[in-house]
Amino acid sequence: MVRLQLLSRNLPALLVLMATLNLSACASLPNVQYLDASLDAKPVATVQPGRGPQLSQAKVRAMLDKRLNKSSIDLNARAAIEEAATGTPLIAGNRVTLLYDGPQTMAAMMAAISAAKDNINLETYIFDQDEVGLRFADLLMAKQRSGVTINILYDSVGTLSTPQLFFDKMKAAGINLLAFNPINPLNRVGHWEINSRDHRKILVVDGKVGFTGGVNISETYSRGSLFRSKQRSSSDTGWRDTHLQIEGPAVAALQAIFISGWDSQTSEPMADRDYFPAPVVAGDRLVRVLASGPDTDHEIYKAYVLSMQQASRSIHVTSAYFVPDVQIVNALKAAAARGVDVKLVLSGVTDSGLVQHAGQSFYTDLLAAGVKIYQLKVSVLHAKTAVIDGVWSTVGSTNLDTRSFLHNNEVNVIVIGDTFGANMESAFAEDLRDSTEITRDAWDNRPIKNRLKEFAARLFEYWL
Predict the structure, then answer these.
(1) Is 382 tagged catalytic?
(2) Same domain, 293 and 240
(3) Which member of 57, 107, 114, 355 has the greatest number of CB atoms within 10 A?
(4) Does 146 share its domain with 207?
(5) Which of 143, 201, 208, 302 is catalytic?
(6) Do 310 and 457 share a domain, yes or no?
(7) Which among 316, 357, 382, 407 is annotated as catalytic?
(8) What is the pLDDT of residue 54?
(9) What is the CATH number of the domain that holds 361?
């Protein structure tokens, strides 16, 4: 989404600009209400192994059954429907590590960068010139001088407050840099799309280790939240976020997404390096890597809604910026009506009051349907994760809002199986511990001024 730190300062001008550019061409999300019934799904989902030919149907069924233990869920059927909707197969043989908050994520990424031998590809929405950004830049320049090829794709709106000299210094060191959809129309004549933003966070090192999730390159992430802390409050608390470190064949999918984004901005080819080394089996995680953008078929949106529609036990969502469209609202309400445990952890402390009020305008309808809503205390929530029925998990850059699904380049990784799902459930329970439940009675008695703010913010939901 448009960088939230800038909204409070530049909101009026920004909204006028967006409305002027797009009022006559508002896009819409696809109707997925009956998508599962209309899809021609295969009897068995496709799984790409780390090496060799595509796995047989028998091996795929055995692989999926192994990830369910004693569960009665037909994971194969769900995986096959999701593949039909997204056109993306599952990838076997991966190690997937959950990273919580900025310090842990930054340490893991910098360790991978330090170990780079051939190439580093970094795609980010925000790259600030602050203590964290300078440390990253210094490390990247050092690796470039040692002979490692480095390509950086950064969003021009997300880095609006970052001085150009910061990027010029890295460029002078030999790093290849591209600004995604420059704000100045003269820098992209004939292809100026100011409302289309690159919200992805991808780091791929030597084609062997990849990172993605919600964490940007910013001082904002220099401190951890209260996640798994014995403290219940702190004046020195950082943002709450979630990222993934991936090793194995799925890294090639992240690499391909990066290269596609790079190629969308320039006709100049990337430096010829070993971006796709032979895949190596690194673990037993089964994943699906999804990318979406304005010119795609809304793959991440379809995967989210389908999974909610098929939920039989639980839907546990952690969403930083929650301004859902009607189909997501209906999917959550329908799930609650059929007895599914639907819980949402949303922002209690925010960097954008407008987005928060717009999201809160949905609370009355959701609470009345039996959806349970919690607001995270103390820390600013920035994570974008979900775990459904304990077997379908996703971590990525995508917020549950129209902007993310329609106008942004986004990336999400879906992990299939109840072992990883248990880790996600544990993290969700930890966030619940640090949250306050919004009850229906308390919400019905909120101040009238809050209701007016919600009404006003809802008017701009398409642009947030």
Answers:
(1) yes
(2) no
(3) 355
(4) yes
(5) 201
(6) yes
(7) 382
(8) 64
(9) 3.30.870.10
Q: Alpha-carbon Rg of the chain, whole angstroms?
A: 21
Specify whether 182 is located in the same domain as 249: yes
User: Does residue 49 have a pLDDT over 90?
Assistant: no
SS3 364: helix
Q: Is 201 a catalytic residue?
A: yes
| H or E element at residue 444 | helix 440-444
Residue 270 lies in a domain: no
Q: Which one of 143, 243, 302, 384 is the catalytic residue? A: 384
Q: Which residue out of 199, 298, 343, 407 is catalytically annotated? A: 199
**Which pLDDT belongs to residue 183?**
86
Element (H, E) at 212: strand 209-213
What are the residues whose beta carbons fall under 8 Å from the beta carbon of 267, sequence distance 6 or more?
none
307 and 434 share a domain?
yes
Query: Do 87 and 104 have their domain in common?
Result: no
Both structure tokens of 75: 């994971």
Statement to judge: residues 402 and 455 lie in one domain:
yes
Is 273 inside any structural domain? no
Dump pLDDT digits (tens) for 12-37: 344 434 444 444 346 788 888 766 66
pTM over 0.85: yes
Cα separation of 394 and 115, whole Å?
A: 28
Count CA within 13 A, CB hemisphere, residue 152. Answer: 27
Q: pLDDT tens across 313-350, in order? A: 999 999 999 999 999 999 999 999 999 999 999 999 87
Give the tens place of pLDDT for each residue, 193-217: 778 899 999 999 999 999 999 999 9
* Range of the structural domain that residue 253 is part of: 96-263
Catalytic residue among 389, 418, 431, 434: 389
Asked whether 420 and 250 are in contact (CB, 8 A), the reply is no
* Total domains, the chain: 2
Same domain assignment for residues 223 and 352: no
Give the pLDDT band of residue 2 (cuts 50, 70, 90): very low
